[in-house]
Specification:
Among the domains are: 413-535, Sandwich (Jelly Rolls); 545-642, Sandwich (Immunoglobulin-like), CATH 2.60.40.10; 653-730, Immunoglobulin-like (Sandwich), CATH 2.60.40.3080. Helices cover 12% and strands 36% of the residues. It is built from eight helices and 44 strands. The strands form eleven sheets. Strands 30, 31, 32, 33, 34, 35, 36 and 37 form an eight-stranded antiparallel sheet that branches. Strands 7-8-6-9-13-16-17 form a seven-stranded parallel sheet. Helix 2 links the parallel strand 7 and strand 8 (145-149).
Length: 731
Amino acid sequence: MRLLLAISILTLWVGSLPAQRVFSLETPQSFSTNSGSECSFDSYGYRGIPNYLCTCNNLDAAKTLQTHQLWSGGALGLNLSGNGLNKLGIWDGGAARTSHRELLGRVQVMDSPTTLSGHTSAVLGNMVASGLNPNVKGMCYATQIKNWNFSNDNAEIIAAANDLLVSNHSYASTSAWTNIGGQWYWYGDSSLHLTKDWKFGYYDNRSRIWDSIMVAQPYYLMVKASGNDRGNGVAPGTPHFYWNGTAWAGTTTTRDTVGPYDCISTFGNAKNILCVGAVPVQPNGIVGNISTFNYSSWGPTDDGRIKPDLVAPSGVILSVGSANDSAYAGLGGTSMAAPSVTASLLLLQQYHQQLKGFYIRNATLKALAIHSARRCKPNLPSPDYECGWGIPDMAKAALLIKDSVLNNIQERTLQNADSFFFFVYLKPTDTLRSTLVWSDPNAVTGVPKFNDTTLKLVNDLDLSLCTQSDSIVALPFVLNPNNPTAAATQGNNVRDNVEQILVSNLPAAWYKLKVKHKGSLQNLQAQAFSLVTSGYSNNLVALPVTWLNVKAEVVADWVAKISWQTATEFNNSHFLVWHGTQVDNMRVVSSAGSWPNGIHNSQMVRSYNTYHQRAEGFAGTHYYKIEQVDIDGKSSFSPVFTIGEESNSKGIKAIIPNPFTDKFEIEYAGTPGTILKLQLLNLNGQSLFEQNLDGSQVSAIIDASSLPSGVYSLKLIDALGNNYYARIIKQ
């Protein structure tokens, strides 16, 4: 079926003017370009120009992304394949050949496409081909996938988003130069710019809708190909058609070749998606600098944001063909780069759910992919407008999930006018990397305009590394869209909803990683954010739980209340309470389910309590300790504490000042003729400082100038072995 739009064009050539020519054209419902892209009519756009959605034109790809390490037989031993999931989707230019031997029984066609698409078959095969031919094995080779035609994508995505975790979109708007049937068409608009297409870098209605979908559905991430427009152009004077506001007209006006920068069109510029460019496969690892293919579209967006977000392997990728049920075909372009990332990310979701029991947010998944990515220019650790944040490393991302002691993955919510921070201890040999990502509310779509620099960021969150007194030590990477070739600097990022700090060679000390926001959050509503951090020393020795306060008190003749707090929790599953009348003869007196379980991962103070009943009461001394059990079955213990004598009213009276700089004064309850022991413990319970105190006195000046700045637990042990605790901070 074709949309009939009879167009007669009369153009006069006089001297430098075109000679008279007559064209009779139709606006087709669909067409194939000379480069092999498949296009379908989308809408009539600005000034009535027809808009189309067009396709952007596997084992080595898997090796490039390190996805093969997640498979059965991979080095990580994870055996991930997507088996049992039905949370992967694809919108593309038609239907895949579902009867193909690599796809049998695992593709669900969700609408009624009129054509069988070789592009869709190859893209889908890149994601889920079963691997009967090992060279075409899909990244997520045993999962189910839902296949939609992109003709009605927005409505279908809104309806389906709640049931999906990731989806692939290897299509784009017609932009700049397109060859149809041997004739060149220019899809810019001369009224907005004579030689450049205004749609590059532009945040359009589809961008706005997609951003709003991922805010409404926080566990759904859309992955899009960046497009293949960079370098497109024709020789000066080449006859071509352009839209004059009412019809296609012939001209020989010289127009610019696309790029090299600012050539990602329309909805590739959405904030919350993962936009993916294309690089050659690197099956043996990345050696030296890697450049994108000459067609792979680069950023920035018109408002200066970093796009593409990542790049992935392409070239001529062998995949499922559409000619028959055993056919294979090679396809390249960013179309084949994006789906390899899409399906690999589903494996990360599968792994997190297996290990932790829940899926992660779309912003967290995006943060993991960006945080673990390898730079295209290893000697330049910052992002750029060519490769974005680099080439994903799915094996490294899986290890970030696996080891939440060495790495920290947080899903938080920032209230309006509030901030969030947590402490990290750094040594000069440490390299700290912290990546902040949030799904930002959709921006307003402006009237079509060439290079509209209006900022599209709605909630402007900020990541910084500070001293404990809030002096800024490091800020995120910032690129300059007015000088896109320049390397990133550190500074105040006002454009991106992805921020990353990378810093090393700092003096040994405790620092604060801080998240806050500028101005007011939209509608004064809280903003969810995700923070991935690695490379700091206290993680290397961190216990699953950092204990702040542990105590017991008798609340009735036969009932004791046991209370404790944690400052941090890593992989924490649950707690057990131990009791005994002798410190070396204690047993568990409560079950794991007798109070709320652990929080798993937390950087906030958490409070817990439970009760212990004894028919014989609590005469004499009773000893307690709390056992923490992590999700892997390992455990650690709090310090031993006692009933009654644990009260600080009988131990530590005051600490002046707190926080302190070099020295502090402790006031305590002494007993003449005895010696008390004072210890300063780090947050892992290790004693870093000890000093004996005279029990005949009631105060002492403590010189702790040798300790680094940080948060400590002060422990006082009296002559009877009773323990008293207080929290103390050195600036």
